[in-house]
Structures are given as C-alpha cells and as structure tokens.
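Hi C.,

You asked whether I'd gotten around to modeling the 294-residue construct. I have! Everything is below, sequence then structure, no commentary in between.
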Amino acid sequence: MKILITGAKGQLGTQLTEILKAGTTELGAIPESFIYADVFGYSSKDLDVSDLSAVRAVVAGIKPDLIINSAAYTNVDGCETDRDRAFRVNALGARNLAIAAEETDARLVHISTDYVFSGTGSEPFAEYDLTDPQSIYGKSKLAGEENVKTFCSRHFIVRTSWLYGLYGGNFVKTIMKAGKERGALQVVNDQKGNPTNVEDLCYHILRLADTEEYGVYHCTGSGECSWYDFAKLIIEYAGIDATVAPVTTDQFPRPARRPSYSSLDNMMLRVTVGDHMRPWQDALRSFMTAFEKM
C-alpha cells in the first residue's frame, strides 16, 4: 500500500502521517490495509499542486493507491486580496491531483470546508444542501470540490471545520497563548460552528478511504458552539488565569465575511462507516491532555 499526502507539513498532514506510523488513534485502530503502508509526504515546498506537469510526474513516479489532499491556501482574509493564489491552490491544485489520481487509478481524499455554504440559518448543513459560498476562500474551495467530482471517479470529499491539532497553528493554541500573555480576551459570540479535533478527523478519513463509499462527507466534532464558548472552555481546560468576554463580529471587521452559522451534519458518515466523532468538549479535553505530554 502506497499513500501520498499533500500538505504534509500542515496540522492535518503531519498528524495523519504520525497516525499512519503508529497504526492507531484515540478512537481506535486504523484499517489493517494501511498498517505498514509506505507514506510519501509532500509539502508546498516539495510539490506545487497548481503545476499539473509536476503533479503528474510525482504521482506517476509513486503510483500511490491513495492520495490524501490536505494542501490548501487557508488564509481566509489573504484569499480576498490574492484571488489568483486562492484559485491556483484550492481549485487548480485539486483538479491536478484528481487528474493524476484518475490516470493512476488511485483513490483521492480531498479535504474541504464549511465555508462552501452561505453561513446563515439555524439548522446544521447536510451534504445535500445547496452550497453558496460568501468568500473567495469558500468559492475557491467549492471550485476544487467540483474539479474533484469532474476529474476523479474514485473520490471522497471531506468537509470539516474549526480544525485544531497537535501540530501547526490553530485557534486553540492562539487562545492559550493570548490568555497567558494578556489575561483578558474578547471573542466573537455571534458565529457558531463545530470545533473538530484533527485526531478524530484522521480516524474517519482512513475509515472512509478503506471503502468504496465514494462521495461527499461532513466530518466535524459533535455539537456546536460559538467561538466565545470554545475560547472559554479552552481557558478553563488549560487552567489559565484569564477572562473571556463576548463581543460581536461587527466589533472586529475583517476583509472576508465569516459565516454566522456553519454547523455541519455528519449524515453521510452515519449512514456509511459510522459517525464516531466525539462531542467537541470531550475531544478538546483529550487534546489538552495530549498537548501537555508533547
């Protein structure tokens, strides 16, 4: 078994690589077919996914059984000012990997986002709900999804949100650092979504990739909260002496529009391999324990 991971130095790619080496996760063992797999990790420095000829050359040389594309330009505000880069990486990059996967008969797992939806409403978005991205980031990621559907017959599109893990930067680490340094934080309370532990996401990616249940999936932590709720629990679990005050999005204007409501429903997981995503509070506590041991 050969597995190619793009975005291998990011928080998802790094933890996924570590899990494949270990053969297990906090939620259970990985599929037997992936144990002892040869893992080929490529960062953005190693491979420009927007270069079709380079992607074809790498994939043809390795001939992977599985490609996991976690490469993305995720700077939401940066996407607004550098649209070309957003679409090169998020749309063309996905297309190129899909083309190469189809040419080598590889399965492709493509990671996407809650930003493909409108960000309004009061009920979690299911996989079949209409997409309506409101930012360049969301539009570029949706274009990537469409390219994957068009060019690769054996694909899994996995949408996730509010991702945090042991490696790289994320909201949890930012809040802990700010809490220690400043003691008083202000966090928006009018944006709701699903915090997702990378560990849980990796477990489900590998469960899906070991099947032929191709299609679009949502994979987020169970339950929803606001960024303010999330930050408060981070500070509490970390035992940091700091206060967290709620504020509105209007008080912190940003170049890109943020979804006010982007909770996802993991319906397709439930009806195929099973939804074992932990309640977001439990997953966060588990992360804190693991992070302290690093």
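If it helps when you're writing up: The chain has a mean pLDDT of 97.

Thanks,
B.
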